[in-house]
Automatic annotation (TrEMBL):
Domain ABC transporter: 6-233
UniProt-recorded Gene Ontology molecular function terms: ATP binding; ATP hydrolysis activity; transmembrane transporter activity
PROSITE patterns on file: ABC_TRANSPORTER_1, ABC_TRANSPORTER_2
Annotated InterPro entries: AAA+_ATPase (IPR003593), ABC_transporter-like_ATP-bd (IPR003439), ABC_transporter-like_CS (IPR017871), ABC_transpr_LolD-like (IPR015854), MacB-like_ATP-bd (IPR017911), P-loop_NTPase (IPR027417)
One Pfam family from the record: ABC_tran
GO CC annotation: membrane protein complex; plasma membrane
Family note: Belongs to the ABC transporter superfamily. Macrolide exporter (TC 3.A.1.122) family.
Residue ranges the record marks as coiled coil: none
Extent of the signal sequence: none
UniProt keyword annotations, A-Z: ATP-binding, Nucleotide-binding, Transport
Protein's UniProt keywords contain Transport: yes
Organism of derivation: Frigoriglobus tundricola
Name of the protein in question: ABC-type antimicrobial peptide transport system, ATPase component
Length: 233
């Protein structure tokens, strides 16, 4: 594995429900190599989405540390995490979360509005991102005019447009038919192999997980198995 771009050490995460403390992650240590495509699997409640959210800086651990690149994100404040996420994390969701009143171009442009870029700089980055996902001819279409697979490709373009350090994907093929899911997974493989993007994907689908380079299984908040994906890369 390449040098780790994500380092998780002795991670703990618990939530309080009433007077009860619920332990979601326990003593979890993990390295993710730069340019690696990693799949996280496990039953509902195993902690995989919680782990993904912690690595993406959407939540903070109860204990332990998380380092992404040169940043110890587990020590950041909420405002620092928000700024860090804008520049370093691209998000891909199961249900796309595109704004229906905006065009594909405008949806992809949204993350760039938080950065100090000119309109021309934003235009170039949006057009490049949409070209990457083969949607240059759909940039003026609204989500309702696109298929599910096309909407997810817009979602991937939006995740890529800031040139992030890390792409996190939560069930990115869960709402797609088999053909569209295969196209999305092929696109994610291209992001890794050609653009050296580090991708962490949560999935329930063994076929989707097999497209990754490595599969980690979580159970009751702990890693129980680490296997190489079946597919050759």
């Amino acid at each position: 594995m390449r040098p780790a771009i994500v380092q998780v050490r002795d991670l703990h995460k618990s939530f309080t429900r009433g007077t009860e403390s619920i332990q979601v992650l326990r003593d979890l240590t993990l390295d993710v190599g730069e340019g690696e495509f990693l799949a996280l699997m496990g039953p509902s409640g195993s902690g995989k989405t919680t782990l993904l959210n912690l690595i993406a800086g959407l939540d903070q651990p109860t204990g332990g540390s998380i380092t992404v690149g040169d940043n110890v994100i587990s020590e950041m404040s909420e405002s620092e995490l928000a700024r860090w996420r804008t520049r370093h994390v691209g998000f891909v969701f199961q249900f796309y979360y595109l704004l229906p009143v905006l065009t594909a171009y405008e949806n992809v442009e949204l993350p760039l509005l938080l950065l100090p870029l000119t309109k021309e700089q934003r235009r170039k980055q949006v057009e490049n991102a949409l070209a990457l996902v083969h949607l240059s001819d759909r940039m003026s279409h609204r989500p309702g005019q696109l298929s599910g697979g096309q909407q997810q490709r817009v979602g991937i373009a939006r995740a890529m447009v800031t040139d992030p350090t890390l792409i996190v994907a939560d069930e990115p093929t869960g709402d797609l038919d088999t053909k569209s899911a295969d196209e999305i997974l092929t696109l994610m493989e291209i992001l890794r192999s050609q653009l050296n993007k580090t991708i962490i994907m949560v999935t329930h689908d063994p076929k989707a997980a097999a497209r990754a380079q490595r599969i980690l299984h979580l159970e009751k908040g702990q890693l129980v198995l680490d296997t190489a994906a079946v597919a050759s890369h």
